[in-house]
Amino acid sequence: MPMLSDFISLFFPQYCSGCNALLIQSEKAICSSCFIELDRFKCQTAKNKFVFGRIEVEEYVSAFDLIKDSVLHKILHNVKYRNDKKSANILGIELGKRIKQLKLHNKIECIIPVPISKKKLKRRKFNQSEEIAKGMSQIITAPVETNWLMRKNNLKSQTFSSRLQRAANVKEEYYLNKKKTLQQKCLLIIDDIVTTGATIQSCLEVINKDEYSIYIASVAKTQKD
User: Fold this and answer.
1) What domains can you pick out in the chain, each with its CATH number?
2) Rounded CA gap, 76 and 133, in Å?
3) How far apart are alpha carbons 225 and 223 in whole angstroms?
4) Average pLDDT of 196-212?
């Protein structure tokens, strides 16, 4: 099949999400040079008993620190605004490796991606957190549940919001699907980027902490968190 792949790439060349360089056959979405660059931003520790707002979770893990205008920043921008599902999947694999490295994978029974509204899903074509979760599930043998934690049809963007505005924008935006019963009790909620933690806090507020053990993971976190 290599000849077929070479033939396809001749007419449909693939470019790196981080630097826009032409990818070689063995590379997918992100080139080897950008992967090496990503190593600079890897998080070294997890945060036990981390608090979002006033809600404590078992552990918070992030794969990378987010630096403005870095390779990672460019990749995440392409994931979120240019429908780059392949990069989201690969970043999910990297986050899954981080979870496994910390030996948390055996505790996780279900992966819950932070949802987006149906209106935003229609506009963006996919939920980046869900694609990240699918990548993670290749490393962590836990199912991805997308129909339990839901979001209302609010199209407010968080990109240019202040800390207080972010909290206001997502307050009471999430709810649980009453038609869905979740059997698993140890949950991993994931998002692409954690900035102020307002989105995660809003998600946690609708989940009964007495019933579930909750872990949080993100591909990246800003240096403020």
Assistant:
1) 41-222 (3.40.50)
2) 15
3) 6
4) 94
